[in-house]
Write a structure and sequence with these properties.
195 residues; alpha/beta; Rossmann fold; seven-stranded mixed beta sheet; two-stranded antiparallel ribbon; 29% strand; globular; binds S-adenosylmethionine
């Protein structure tokens, strides 16, 4: 991953474009903000850190779970080959899609549904970025991670979770490292929390 390209693009991206009018004035703060439906856009420093940890390459196929505002999606689309993004709340997905149309990306594929199941049709993925917290590591996401691939996911109870970096090694085993404590909204669904 080209760190300079990532940082340049990150700095050029206007976060106020990804939030509703009443939140625009707060969009320059390094803080999570509400995006409706009880969901949030993460603080910019965490988005950047998670992207660095994910470390997608130019030819990476990336699965993103939790499209939310589309802010993280825009960054992933800029630095990877293809981004498959799944959001369970249709209204959020529609808004994110509209915003992302303004960027002229032709490498983003959208799905409304339960992302705790991944997106099997296009698996395996070189990178998986999960931006909502699961109680345990969703088995299906591990299955859909390519050998040599990396996944970033918050794991733990509502209110406080460990941010995990999961790497799949040659024999299909995984290595899991804890990066830091974070606070994300819940990953709902079959391999997440109850709806
Ligand atoms: N990355 C987003 C951004 O840049 O705005 C923020 C994502 S927000 C913290 C988490 C998102 O995950 C919410 O939009 C929520 O609806 C979504 N979500 C929760 N459970 C999900 C599931 N099972 N499948 C897909 N999306 C889910």
């Amino acid at each position: 991953m080209d760190q300079q390209e990532l940082e340049r693009y990150f700095r050029s991206l206007d976060r106020s474009f990804f939030v509703e009018n009443d939140m625009k004035k707060y969009s320059y703060l390094d803080a999570p903000l509400p995006i409706g439906f009880g969901q949030t856009i993460s603080q910019p420093s965490l988005v950047l850190e998670m992207t660095r940890l994910l470390a997608p390459e130019k030819d990476s196929k990336v699965l993103e779970i939790g499209t939310g505002s589309g802010f993280q999606t825009a960054i992933l689309a800029k630095i990877s080959d293809k981004v498959y993004t799944v959001e369970r709340i249709e209204e959020l997905m529609e808004k994110a899609k509209k915003r992302l149309e303004a960027f002229d990306y032709s490498n983003i594929y959208f799905k409304v549904g339960d992302g705790s199941l991944g997106w099997e049709e296009y698996a395996p993925y070189d990178r998986i970025m999960v931006t909502a917290a699961a109680g345990v590591l969703p088995e299906e996401l591990v299955n859909q991670l390519a050998t040599g691939g990396r996944m970033i996911i918050p794991i733990g109870p509502p209110g406080s979770q460990e941010l995990k970096l999961v790497t799949k090694i040659d024999d299909g085993d995984i290595i899991t490292k804890t990066v830091e404590m974070v606070r994300f909204v819940e990953l709902k669904g079959q391999y997440g929390w109850e709806e």
